[in-house]
Each structure stands twice: as structure tokens, then as C-alpha cells.
Amino acid sequence: MKKISLSILAIAGLLFFACAKPEIPSDPNDNQTEQPGDNPGDNPGDNPGEQPGDNPGEQPGDNPGGTDQPGSGDNPTVYDIFLCIGQSNMAGRGEMIDSDRDSINGVWLLKPDGSIEKATNPLNKYSSVRKDLSMQQISPAFGFCTYMHEKTEKPILLVVNAKGGTGIGNWVPDSSSDTLYNAALRRTRQALAYGELKGIIWHQGESNASTWSSYMASLKTMVEAFRKDLGKENLPFVAGEIHHYHSNSMYFNKMIQAIAENIPNTAWVSAYGLTLNSDMLHHDRESQITLGERYGEAMYRLAYDNSAPAPAVQPELYVEPRKITLESASGSEATATLVTNQSDISVSIPEDAASWLSVKVGSDKITFTASSEAQSGESRTAVVRFSAQKEYVDITVTQKAASKYSIGQVWNNQGVIFWINPENPDNFKVISAKAEKRAWGPKDKINGVNSSSISGLEAADKVRAADDYSTASYAQQFCDKLGEGWYIPNRDEGDALFLAYDSETYFAKDKSGTATKDVPDKCTDKEKAARTAFDNALTSVEGGVKLNTAEWSSTGDSIWLCYETSAGLGYYYRYGSPGCSTGSKSSTARWARCVKEIK
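User: That's the sequence. What structure does it adopt?
Assistant: C-alpha cells below.
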């Protein structure tokens, strides 16, 4: 009799529970099992340090333990359900401590078979798409669920289905990589047997920071799909900023702050003051918990009480770019864009940089100025910190080393420097002081090099290797007489030479510049002085010849440039007026003058 009574009670309990289940939106995939390949790997280059294919999914024996079903013991029969999805920060990378493994009061976790258990960290351990179990640590879901239970005094059921390294494209249901969306949808539908879905929290964006301009459209597609497929037209959704230290965070976070203007019944949470692990990619344990509480505060207003106080405005401080380069000269400047909601920003310059660097903070930009000239051959670097309350940004400022060389300087008694590499002051080019008037080569017997694709030593080597080198390469033969490394200059080098010779700005493409584009007689005093100084440097070398021996004629002399045109004829460049000729000649004698690059 006793056994019969217990059986009747058990049957009654089961009937009660079945009746209490809410209606679940239909899932066309309910009868489908998850197939191999349903869960794609990371996007290439996403989140360095997390490798694709790190054992996604739950492994046999990963998560032993019992199941706590609704209606048994102290367990409730109806839960408030939340879906927690995103990439590695939502999966959790904050290092756990021993107490984190204790069960979380008032919170349950959905298991892979659709049953539930008392929640313990790591909360992403049952994700159907996760990476290796050992990588799952403290996530924002921890701070979120504890906040929600304490605030609502209701039992909370979490569906956590995050995967590190994934981009928004992996989560959009109409893309070619939609399995992450499908997996989250399937697991959420399983959870609906236990209560009502109250909202979604989403932390993702590090993988998409550089493509932020197209992000909102993809996010809207995903949110609308969840709302439609789960039968909740106005389902609350909360997204988070990425860490303010992250590259492009200024642009990404400003975009995510506009979520409510683009998607109804949504909110965003700030990453203000959060700190990172040593990998400088993931929030540490304390910050994960803080971030989760911010998610909870925002979700409570959306899902329970929209009259609740709005979260306090958090400081925002962004500076882009994070690396600044100053020229070697004293007074050289560079600027960075500043976006902030703070009026009081402190600047910290290292003590050893205070003598050469000054910084001015404006309303929307920061100006960096070199207050002294850099020494020859030695660049200078400083890390400048900008702070507003607990927010800070570090900017690396480098002043280039002063070059030991200068434009117009005689080099090694062979030529004159006309170009210095702006990225490396020890890399420069010289034009030969010696020159000789000679024809390019007999007409129709020029070696084929195609100067549009190669130039310099490579082209010179091809000319030397040609069968008709000795009878058809008169200009190159002159260069070879000067010694190893000399070659015919190309048209770009002709433009650089003209700048060095003339001292005024000149644009080769449209032939605009100073009065010299007409006739040399219209040269300014500055141009005349520069030309005279350059010619004097050339003639100071034994055997050196002026660049423009025609003095102030209307056209001036010209030198050969490039190894070949499409017609097999060499270009020439006139130094009376700027620019290479629109035609080309081979038989007329012009100045053969050569270039050498010094590295």
C-alpha cells in the first residue's frame, strides 16, 4: 500500500510538471542531431593565442555530476531564462579561484542533454561550440546571473553557448557560417521547457573592430532572427563595448553605443575601467564580474522595470592612432584624434622625454611637438599616458633620428645626394657628378627591358646580359665605367632629383609647381640659389658637370632616364623645365648621368 501511494504521488507530480511547461516555438531542426562541421573554426587571424580547432564541444567525461530537475527537492518549476553568447570574453578567460567552483545561489545551467543542474563555473562548459574545456574560465555570465537573482529574487536558468575567436559573420543566420546561431537557437529552445526567455546578453566584437562600419547591420540581422525564431518580438538584448585598449575601440564602441537607435529594446554596457589579463586581449577575473553586473543592470531595466535608474555615464577616452612619429627637426609636429566625454584629462610624459617632447590636449585632437632636434643616428621614443578617472590610453611617440646626410651633400667624391629615405636616414641615393653626352643607342637596336616593371640594378643587369649590349647600350656603358652599383635613373628618380635641384614643391603627374614649368628665366631667387648650390656641389668633384649646363636657357639640358619605352627608345628629362618629355629619342646625344643607392 505504501509503494502504491508513492507511485500515485510520483505520477501526479509528473502530470503537474507537464502541464506547467510553457508553449515552445516550433523548431524545424528539433529532430535533427548536430552534424560534424556544424561548428566552424575561428576566422583567420581572430584573437591571437587561441588556435582554431582546439577541441570544440563537450568531451566524454568532461563534466560529471548529477542533475537537478524542476520540481524535485527545493528546485522551482519555472525559471527566468537568459542566453549568453559571443566570443572568448563571453566564453570566459578570467582565471578562476577555488570558491568560483561552488554552486551559484539561485542559478541553474542548461546541460547538453536538455536537463539542468545547479550552476557552477565555468559557465561555458556545456557550450556545444566551445573550445577545449581547460580554456573556459570566469565570464561576464557569472556576475550577470548573481546580479539578476539578487535583484529579481527569481530562479535563473542560463544557456551559455559562446566560442572564442568567432566573428559576427559566424553568428548571422543567413551567412554561409550560420551554425553558431543555429546551435544557440537549438539550446535555447531546449531551455524553454523550464520557463520564460527573458533576454540575451552578447559580448563580441574584438574580431570585428577593424570592420566596425558594417557591424551594426549584421547585429540587427542576428537579433531580429532570434526574436522571430523564438517567438518574442521585443526580446531584450544587451551588447557590450570592447576593451578601450583594443585597436579601433574608439570607432567600434561609438558604433555599439548607438544600438538602441538601430534596434528597439536594446542597450549597451561600458568597458570603462576594466582591466586585462597579461595577454592584453581578455578581461581578468575581477573585470569579468564587474562587466557581468553591468549587463545585469542594463537587462533589469529592459526586462523587468524600465523606470529603474539608468546606469551612470562612464568615462570614455579614446586616442587614435596609438603610435605617433615625429621628424628629427625641432618643432616637428604630429596629431592624434581625441574622443572623450571628460573635460579633465591628465598627461604623463616620462621624465627622460620631457626635454624633447611637448603635448597639447585640445577638444578633439592631441598635438605632439618635438622641442629639440634628434641626434644623428639615434631615434627617441617615449610612452605618453592620457588619463581620465580610471580610464587611460598609452601612446608611443617616436622622433626620427637626424640623418648624417643631407640633400645636396657631396658623397664619397663621386656624386651628390638627391634623395634620403624618410623611413631610414642611412638609406639614400646619389646622382653621379660625372656625365657624358652620348646617344642612347642605335635606333631599333635597344635591348628590351620594360622599365615600367623593373628599374635600377635589376634592369641594368638585364641590359648587360643582352647580346647587343656592346653595340646598343651606350648610356648604360657609361654608367658601368663609373664602377659597380651605378645604373640609369628612372622617371621617379628624375622627379626626386628635380626637387633636390629646384628646392620648390613639384608634382610630376600634372606638371604643376612653380614658374619653372614655363621657362627657367622665371625662377625665383630661392630656386636659383638652390640650383647654383647643387651645381657647385657637382662641379666640386673632379670631372663633375653641372646638372644644367645650358645655364638659364628656355629649355635647359636633359639627361637619359629609364631603360626603355614601349617603342624601344629611352626617355629624357629636361632640367630647364620640369618633367620627362612626352616623346622619346634614341639617336640624339643627351647627358648620360647615373644613380647609385647607398644602404
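The mean pLDDT is 82.
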